[in-house]
Amino acid sequence: MPFRARRGPFRAEPLRFVAARSPWHGGAAIVAAMPPSLRQPENALMDSVARPPFRPGHWRRFALRGAKMAAATLLIAVCISVLSGKPFGTVLVYSLCISILSWLFIDIGRDLVAMRRPLPPDGDAGARSAWPGWRWMMAIVIVGAVLGYAIGNEIANRLTGLNSPGPFTASSRELLPLLLLALLPAVAITYFFYSREVIGLQKTAVEAAQRQAAEQQLKLLESQLEPHMLFNTLANLRALIGIDPPRAQQMLDQLIAFLRASLAGSRTGLHSLEAEFQRLRDYLALMQVRMGARLATGFELPAELADAQLPPLLLQPLVENSIKHGLEPQVAGGRIDVSAAREGGVLVLRVRDSGAGLGPLAESDKRYGLAHVRERLATLYGSRASFSLAAAGDAEGGTLATIRLPFESGADVAARSRA
User: Fold this and answer.
1) CA geometry: angle at 373 spanning 380 and 276, to 5°?
2) Which residues of 378-412 are buried (b: 16+ CB within 10 A; e: fewer)?
3) CB of 55 closer than 8 Å to CB of 200
4) CA of 7: how far to CAs of 12, 38, 274, in Å?
5) How do residues 306-346 score in pLDDT, each as one tens digit?
6) Residue from 106, 112, 110, 116 nearest 131 by CA
7) 0.85 cut: is pTM over it?
């Protein structure tokens, strides 16, 4: 009798393994992607992985808050000494002991409570700043201020030899003023520091969103440039097939090799000037298959500039325009020279052709590639970069395109990404 699986409410579903990126560290944690019927909620999965106790830069911010607290305490001690007529040294000792201990209890208590609360990766600024909420915070402030006042007052008594009453040793008449003296500054300073931190985190979030939007715009511009180049090449290839099939075959082979070499580089945010020049050499070799002796090329890249960083495909539209609007209209063709130089902290890139020169369309800046070059430079560098197109101004004639942008080496970009 053949075996038949008994039907029932359960259905076998495969267990898949996927790489899920943890929001609190840079590695990829391998987790089981279970069927929907057995899958745990996402929050449960996140809670099952150990979180680090503090966010990056926590101790630097902790020390900065401590320094600000000490400076505020010094100012308060000066005011109290002036208003009360008491010796400044005595007032400073009591102020520092009470204020710093109260701050330590409040700040550490806040961290201890916030560590045990869920921290959503897309939460608001308060969540990202590990703020436990005002209900918890008021309890922490009350306990921290009272304990800080009591212990700090006792330490100051021993240091000065005085016997100032604390929250636990004062009479009922003295207790309320002491509690108000401890709580009001603690609440005010806590709110001040919290507001400053939230404002700073919101500013960081806005800057990160702006950077992400700029990166997406650059990717969009690059995705538009690649088909533009490909369509131009395919149009040239189609024209060549009818008049010279062997050269068309050679051009097709060169195109395949060019696209294969360019695929990885075109998906990066920045690459080296050496890589950009190599891609231009490949592209011009592709064009030379079609144009033959009508196209001559030259490259000038100093060794010290080979590692300079720039967006991929930045120079290629300029070379394409030199061929299409400069060299192709001339029966004799012409020459294209690509060069790089450094002027202080500025990287200067030039594309020079000996073609037909500027026409009305170029002067109105409506050529497809040139507009994209301007947009990409403005998006990535703002006013720090510029692009100009002018007549070459010598006996050979033609056009000179010049790009100026901040010089950054590969080490500079790596250090900036780590900061």
Assistant:
1) 85
2) bbbeeeebebebeebeeeebbbbbebbbebbbeee
3) no
4) 11, 19, 65
5) 999 998 888 988 998 898 888 988 888 899 999 999 999 99
6) 110
7) no
Q: Residue 197: which of 398, 61, 355 has the closest Cα?
A: 61
Q: At what angle do helices 88-115 and 58-84 cross, to 10 degrees?
A: 150
Residues 272-307 pLDDT 10s: 999 899 889 988 888 887 788 899 999 999 999 999
pLDDT at 166: 81
- Assess whether pLDDT exceeds 70 at residue 65: yes
Q: Which residue has the higher pLDDT, 73 or 409?
A: 409
The helix (run of H) or strand (run of E) holding residue 29 is strand 28-33
Helical residues (DSSP H) of 347-388, grouped into ranges = 360-363, 368-381
Q: What residues contact 21, with CB distance under 8 A and at least 6 apart?
A: 28, 29
Confidence tier at 131 by pLDDT (50, 70, 90): low
Per the CB < 8 A criterion, the answer to whether 315 and 351 are in contact is: yes
Pick from 73, 98, 78, 109: nearest CA to 182: 98
- Structure tokens belonging to residue 99: 């204020």
Q: How far apart (Å, rounded) are the C-alpha atoms in residues 44 and 198? A: 27
Residue whose entry in the numeric block shows the structure tokens 């900061």: 419
Q: Cα–chain-centroid distance for residue 29? A: 23
Helix (H) or strand (E) holding 140: helix 134-160
Question: Based on the number of CB atoms within 10 Å of its own CB, is 37 exposed (0-12), middle (13-18) or buried (19 or more)?
Answer: exposed
Mean pLDDT of 374-391: 89
The pLDDT, as a whole number, for residue 72 is 81
Contact by Cβ (8 Å): 398, 354: yes
CB 95 within 8 A of CB 77: yes
User: Quick check: helix, strand or coil at residue 16?
Assistant: strand
Bridge partners of residue 271, in order along the sequence: 310
Contact 345, 376 (CB under 8 A): no
